[in-house]
């Protein structure tokens, strides 16, 4: 799934470049779009499950700038029993901007629990 997300002034530093901490917000927005295609966060919560971040990382290749519209592709890199690792590939047109990875662990009542079917299903 590809999300198209604009770089807004509030995301930028004085040089009109997106601040490094903001990339994770874009990954999260893209993940919510990916999750939405599978029934959404509300459905996940209705099933009594939630997701917490276990690990995250970002490789920066080129700066994102004010006014850019970034295409963020979300794809599972690994689906385990209780966790899912997502890869987020961020591009400005054909230029690679960043690649992020986030591992989410599924929890119920504060304990790791198997991923619901909605997260294990192919795209």
For this entry, give a set of tags.
alpha+beta, 20% helix, 3 helices, 6-stranded antiparallel sheet, single chain, 123 residues
Describe the secondary structure blueprint for this structure.
Layout: E1 2-6, H1 23-36, H2 40-46, E2 50-60, E3 69-79, E4 83-92, E5 95-108, E6 111-112, H3 117-120
Antiparallel strand pairs: 1-3, 2-5, 3-4, 4-5, 5-6
Structural account:
- The protein is of the alpha+beta class.
- 20% of the residues lie in helices and 43% in strands.
- The protein has helices at 23-36, 40-46, 117-120; strands spanning 2-6, 50-60, 69-79, 83-92, 95-108, 111-112.
- Strands 1, 2, 3, 4, 5 and 6 form a 6-stranded antiparallel beta sheet that branches.
- The mean pLDDT is 94.
How would you summarize this macromolecular structure in one to three sentences?
This protein is α+β, with helices and mostly antiparallel strands.
Number of strands: 6
Estimate the mean pLDDT confidence: 94
As a whole number of angstroms, the C-alpha radius of gyration is 15 Å
Structural class from helices and strands? alpha+beta
Shape: elongated
What is the succession of H and E elements? Answer: EHHEEEEEH
- Low-pLDDT parts are none
Q: State the helicity in percent bands.
A: 10-25%
Percent of residues in β-strands: 35-45%
End-to-end Cα distance: 8 Å
Main sheet: strands, sense, barrel: 6 strands, antiparallel
Q: What's the helix count? A: 3
């Amino acid at each position: 799934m590809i999300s198209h997300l604009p770089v807004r002034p509030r995301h930028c530093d004085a040089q009109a470049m997106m601040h490094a901490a903001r990339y994770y917000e874009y990954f999260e927005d893209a993940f919510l779009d990916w999750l939405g295609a599978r029934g959404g966060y509300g459905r996940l919560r209705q099933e009594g499950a939630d997701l917490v971040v276990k690990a995250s990382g970002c490789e920066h290749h080129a700066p994102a700038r004010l006014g850019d519209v970034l295409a963020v592709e979300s794809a599972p890199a690994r689906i385990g029993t209780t966790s899912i690792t997502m890869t987020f590939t961020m591009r400005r047109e054909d230029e690679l901007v960043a690649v992020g990875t986030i591992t989410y662990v599924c929890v119920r009542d504060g304990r790791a629990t198997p991923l619901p079917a909605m997260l294990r299903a192919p795209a």
